[in-house]
Amino acid sequence: MAHNAAELIETPLLDGDLLRQTAIREIRAQIVTLPSVRAHRLSNTEFSHREFVLVRVRLANGIEGIGEAAVLGGPRWAEESVESIQAAVTRYLAPALLDCPAARPAEAALRMAKAAFRNNAAKGAVETAIYDALAQTLDVPLTLLFGGALRDRVPVLWALASGDAEQEVEEARAKLAAREHRDFKIKLGFASPEDDLRRLRRLRDEVPEMRRLIVDVNQAWSEADCRRFLPALQELRVDLIEQPLPGDDFEGMARVAAQSPIPLMVDEAAFTHREITRAGTMGCGSVYSLKLVKSGGLRALTQAARVAESSGMELYGGCLLEGSIGAAAHLAVFATLPRLPQGCEHFGPRLHVSEIVKDPLVIEDFHLCVPQGPGLGVHLDEDRLRDALRPS
């Protein structure tokens, strides 16, 4: 039985009835494969289809919540793969969470922390599903459990990452014409810096309507490369440089950031709150990329935002090319943040040829709309899911 808002005024949130109703009875993890609309290149990999893990959490009241764990073509961006995520959820996290009330998400997070070290993508997907089921039980949007939404839409950019300048020019023009995206991220690092700059210059020359331009080097440059090519990036009016150096080179990032007239964004360098604080204190960058896969849970994601801001960094809504489920989870937090000056990059759902939800996220007038309704606000399409599941 769902509780409406009026009932909650007179009913203690954590009464015994609600705890019994929201006891976790089953957790499933399934690997999903979706083809991409085009090849997507990073400095260390390339893929033409997306694989992620769908997590489903069923409560005693019969309500099911969903979550998504995304990776980039295997354990290349971080240590997790879809296979390891499925195994971690099935063998370690699920047994630890059985009978835990979804109405006690802090207890669920503590149980997961004891059951497995790191495994952030797996934990993030499970916690998302728990929160989704809890919010559905309470008949409230997930944003309400994080303080309530302050915005119903977030500016969203599009990433150009095929490496084919001609194709990218046409893609950018199409996104602008459709009023879907006017800010763009250009993936660098899979070619030489000289080739990347030629490609970047062509995009700037042939698509002057671009508003903001971010470059993501994906840890592929050296400190010498940064010093050598920063003037060219400044000439091309680049607005932000994401993680140009390897994630463990805090000292190098700090030196580059001190020299660069363009702000640097910290991504792979900082997963934990200690790492975020260290990056901010050392001056490694003035912007931090928030990602569920780094924080390992929605509660931790909200905490990461506070830590980053207190360390002197602005907030940016990063992604790992999640579909609508993973993007909706991020938006549930992004919508509640007092400040999100850098917008977000949750274009992932549009990179898939098809989706596994009935209600894909909406992009209009250069903004990504926050889903409405109870829970995450997105619902599985069982027929499409059946076609997308990896055979056991």
TrEMBL record:
SUPFAM superfamilies: Enolase C-terminal domain-like (SSF51604), Enolase N-terminal domain-like (SSF54826). One of its GO terms (molecular function) is racemase and epimerase activity. The keyword Isomerase applies. Keywords: Aromatic hydrocarbons catabolism, Isomerase, Manganese, Metal-binding. InterPro entries: Chloromuconate_cycloisomerase, Enolase-like_C_sf, Enolase-like_N, Enolase_C-like, Mandel_Rmase/mucon_lact_enz_CS, Mandelate_racemase_C, Mandelate_racemase_N_dom. Pfam families: MR_MLE_C, MR_MLE_N. Pathway: Aromatic compound metabolism. The active site is at K187, E345. Residues 165-263 form the Mandelate racemase/muconate lactonizing enzyme C-terminal domain. Its cofactor is Mn(2+). One of its GO terms (biological process) is amino acid catabolic process. The keyword Metal-binding applies. NCBIfam families: mucon_cyclo (TIGR02534). Belongs to the mandelate racemase/muconate lactonizing enzyme family. This is Muconate/chloromuconate family cycloisomerase.
